Sequence to fold (146 residues):
Amino acid sequence: MGLFSFIKDAGEKIFGGSEAKADELKKNLDAQGLDTKDIQVQVNGDQVELHGSVKDQATLEKAVLAVGNNAGVAGVKTDGITVNAPAEESVFYTVKSGDTLSKIAETQYGKGNGGKYMVIFEANKPMLKDPNKIYPGQVLRIPPLK
Fold:
């Protein structure tokens, strides 16, 4: 997949300071229940590298978001990850002020598709707990419509 950029000052603040720590990121990642036990997390400044393997593309993308949507993380590199069941990659979208999942669905899937916002919500679980609670700077997966 490569390198994914995030807004360093946006995101959940899980660290005591502003600097990301590998063990805290790994703990937060595993707490999501994404079956990421075979992923190792390495931090180099504000850049995070993921190594290991995951069962499918969705798990990898969710892991990237779970790690990247934390304050202090500016990028996530995934070159060290093996995906056991590759599939079409999702688009990543950075939330802007005034966005709603419905508005994002309309923009990403085309006019008249705002009602597909639950596709985006489901694709970003468990990181999203409520479809009405997104924030500017947060990065979301926008999976292809089937």
